[in-house]
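Sequence in, structure out.
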Amino acid sequence: MEKITCFSFQTVIYALLTLLFLMLSLVLYQRRKLEHVSQAFVFPKISPLFKFGLTICMLLFSGFYFSETTGEIGWIFFGYAIGSLFGYYLGEIILQKTWRTKFNLKVYLFFTMVIIALALILKIDLIQYKTNIPNESEVRQIYIGNTPSFFEADTSYTGPTFLKQKENIEAVMLLHQQIIEKGKTISVGEKNGGQSVFIMYQLKDGKRVAREYHLQNYESYLPLLAKIHESSEYKKTVNELLHVDR
């Protein structure tokens, strides 16, 4: 019954959104200027958004491809450069509707500087998002695993569960601190087949703090992980046989 109610609610939401977009498209159609009908976009203000959006998408896709295939920093930056050039040029072709388009070097260089500035801001982490570890006094329980999929809203899986013992909470927080500290010394592009670690804090005020890391030097964390994995509480969270009633 609960699933049916949820399905009906989602259907109503989608129906309302569909109606809203239909009305919005009608308004935009009536307000369009006929002299722009032959252009790629009827509303000229959308053109820069499309061009630079396409450039960013191609930049990220090309950089990700070389990162996954080579893992070398030189090839990664080459991927970013070639992807951004191709995306920018492709955007100009679509907007001007011809491949004989003039490449505006000044605009491209300005775009490149903006992207570099944004990347540096994210790297600096001004809001301390990547290095945020709650105070131990605020933590009620902690979950640690390889994936956050157990906490998806639609899942019916009930385990593994959180760790509540003080020594395990301290061990996970120490591991988290080591991940942050060692992560500062890893350069872009290092890759040796590491593994993912997902940590979720359940705070006493009901909030959750979740972080997922891909550990490039996984072996160096094994002593800290062993201390957690060998605890009786952790074994009970991952082994269902230990919950069977005798």
